[in-house]
Amino acid sequence: MGPFPLGRPARLAVFASGRGTNLEALLEAFPKGHPLGEVVLVLSDNPEAYALERARRRGVEAVALPWQGRRAFEGEALALLEARRVDLVLLAGFMRLLSAQFVGVWYGRLLNLHPSLLPDYPGLRVHERVLAAGERQTGSTVHFVDQGMDTGPILLQGRVPVLPGDTPETLEARVLRLEHRLYPKAVRLLLRGLAFPPPSDLKGRLGEEAAGAFLALSPRDKPLYLRAWALLRAWGREDLVPAAFLGRAGVWGRAAFLAAHLLAGADPVLREEVATLPPEVRARVEGALRVESSP
């Protein structure tokens, strides 16, 4: 399972290469003294990045590490992260691929934001490709970083429509506005222990049948199951997780999945179904939803 919650405010670092608009959203969401965590360090491979100025304006340490190759950058970055006692690294418009060694050290504590509904449209020129394909919907994905490019386990996704007459520029602006809400929400879920990458020992934890059912899910469905797992654990019902994954955990399993969907931004109509749950179970769901929406 993941390392969060920590039982104390987390120390966040953000890597950015350019304008830093998503950095600004994170600085706004996690200022100094926030009970969940605060941004304590901003790193950039580009000394001219406006992201550095955004950090300085808010009194956050901003460090430029001019790119002189991956090994040199990562060596300096790792030293700084250790010295500043960073718990979580957030990539926000960081335009470099990190090495397998770096990712291995930080796996589960390293997030990225990508402007598409992964696993569709990884890589660059996303909005042009979405329009060329005639998509009617697009969005953004917060995912754990692994050793591939935009291939890590999904944490949270948000969707926006593609409108007739859209250009890459109008679509980019719409997705960016979505991202300014989506990234802080994903970080809150992670810091509260309501998101984590799939454990490596799934069969040992779930049994063969439930693990097989989980592995057969699409990448977009897996985070909902993991969130239901986290909720059942928080409610003292982790023993029900294998049955819940197989649809056999009764009202507690249904409650965990209702809460998981609502925490991911599902249609609020599901709240009406929450109202039909037994009082003890309903109280657990309503408590989870209140906690996520609080600071």
Provide structural commentary:
The chain has 295 residues and is of the alpha/beta class. The chain has helices at 21-29, 50-57, 70-83, 100-106, 126-132, 168-191, 202-206, 208-215, 222-234, 241-245, 250-263, 270-274, 279-293; strands spanning 10-15, 37-44, 61-64, 88-91, 110-114, 137-144, 154-161. It has a 7-stranded mixed sheet with strand order 3-2-1-4-5-6-7, covered by helices on one side. The longest helix is centred in the middle third of the chain and has 24 residues, at 168-191.
Low-pLDDT runs of 5+ residues are none
How many distinct domains?
A: 2
Shape: globular
SSE order, as H and E? EHEHEHEHEHEEHHHHHHHH
For this structure, the CATH topology of the largest domain is: Rossmann fold
> What is the count of β-strands?
7
Strand content is 5-15%
* Class inferred from helices and paired strands: alpha/beta
Major sheet: size, sense and barrel closure?
Answer: 7 strands, mixed
* CATH architecture type of the largest domain: 3-Layer(aba) Sandwich
Report the end-to-end length measured between terminal Cα atoms: 24 Å
CATH superfamily name of the largest domain?
Formyl transferase, N-terminal domain
Q: How helix-rich are the residues, as a percent range? A: 40-55%
